[in-house]
Amino acid sequence: MSKAASSFNLEVSTQRLEAFSDGVFAIAITLLILEIKVPTAEQLKNSSLFQYLWQQGPKYATYIFSFITIGIYWANHHYLFKLFTKTDHFFNLLNVLFLMSISFLPFPTGVLGDYIMQEEHRKTAVTFYSLGIYLPAFFWFTIWLYAIKGKRLIHPRLSDDFIRSMTRVYLFSNVVYLAAFFISLFHSLTAIIIGIVLTLFYLLPPPKPEFRE
């Protein structure tokens, strides 16, 4: 491939991609609250407003958890893109798939909030939600693997030890989220606890990038 063709296929900045991603994050995180409805007069015929609001506790919990999850992905997306020096067509498409999984998350969040307290539907709701929070981790890892292969898109002076360390962290996330998904088929509470613990882990600040001399 000629130098001119190579420069045509690579974008020298990630700013446009980051701006688009920020917009999707903002919409997805806003959609979460739409799953919590204001009660109608018909719904309050057999209960007080206080009782209705109290019964929405599971929805509040799933809203908070999903809001934090998307917020963590947004913060780490900002961090990750500091490590990239450029983009290309396939990288853009992988990022679109990642954003698709983020914008999908409000749906399993709503399902979990509605059915987690119903024993006959709890397992399905938790499994569906476990899949929903696994998908962003999977596409995130795919983005990272594509970018680091041959250091095609990341900063060329990033140390190999740092790259391997981040790869292990992202692989660990995928293994744990996938394990939570399979565990949810048999034990819903354990799967939820695993998801919460892993999310709390990612509240910690990411490591400082290491560069070669």
What this model shows, in words?
By secondary structure, the protein is mostly helical. The protein has one domain (13-201). It is 71% helix and 2% strand. It contains 9 helices and 2 strands; from the N terminus they run H-E-H-H-H-E-H-H-H-H-H. A two-stranded antiparallel sheet has the order 1-2. Helix 2 runs antiparallel to helix 4 and helix 7 (119-148) runs parallel beside helix 9 (188-201). The protein starts with a helix and ends in a 12-residue tail after the last helix. The mean pLDDT is 90.
Range of helix content: over 70%
> In what order do the strands lie side by side in the largest sheet?
1-2
Derived structural class: mainly alpha
Let me know the number of strands.
2
Distance between the termini: 30 Å
Gyration radius, to the nearest Å?
Answer: 20 Å
Mean pLDDT: 90
Shape: elongated
Count of domain modules: 1
Strand content: under 5%
> Which regions are unreliable across 5 or more consecutive residues at pLDDT < 50?
none
Regarding quaternary structure, how should these chains be classified?
single chain
Write down the secondary-structure element order: HEHHHEHHHHH
With helices defined by DSSP (H or I, 4 residues minimum), what is the helix count? Answer: 9
Major beta sheet, specifics? 2 strands, antiparallel
